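Tip: read the tokens left to right.
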């Protein structure tokens, strides 16, 4: 399954639905993660908060290809996208294992393919380096085989980037 998480708003819904099996809008119409770890222990891969992100763990966990479309925020994800990623921590378990000679949480859903980040907005070279490193580490931690980061000069390039 190909999943797109984005902070673009409704103007891009038709395009994104055409390019993916599932889309998840980081529109801020949900609560931030409470850090209760219930999605790890009490009700695995489901958040106790009944809002648009209740099943975010399952969507991210089942994705073979994850595409994140985000505005640059100092070399990191926009706040709404970061909230979605925080709420998907249940894709792993509280148990630990070694991957890439480093300790990581055990994956609940197994290995995945590509973790791709499409970044728009003004960005410096240092922020680009930060984004590449962030995507690489997120991909490793969440069990993705590879990561890719694309930087758009403007959103007219979005369709080709997906």
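Filled-in amino acids:
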């Amino acid at each position: 399954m190909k999943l797109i998480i984005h902070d673009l708003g409704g103007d891009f819904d038709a395009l994104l639905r055409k390019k993916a099996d599932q889309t998840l809008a980081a529109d801020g119409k949900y609560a931030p993660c409470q850090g209760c770890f219930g999605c790890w222990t009490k009700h695995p891969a489901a958040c106790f908060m009944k809002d648009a992100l209740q099943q975010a763990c399952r969507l991210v966990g089942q994705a073979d290809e994850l595409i994140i479309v985000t505005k640059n925020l100092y070399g990191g994800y926009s706040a709404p996208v970061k909230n979605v990623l925080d709420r998907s921590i249940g894709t792993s378990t509280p148990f630990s294992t070694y991957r890439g000679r480093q300790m990581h949480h055990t994956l609940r859903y197994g290995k995945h393919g590509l973790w791709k980040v499409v970044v728009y907005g003004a960005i410096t070279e240092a922020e680009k380096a930060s984004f590449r490193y962030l995507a690489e580490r997120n991909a490793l931690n969440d069990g993705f085989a590879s990561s890719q980061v694309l930087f758009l000069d403007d959103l007219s390039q979005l369709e080709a980037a997906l």
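The longest strand covers residues 112-120. The chain has a mean pLDDT of 94.
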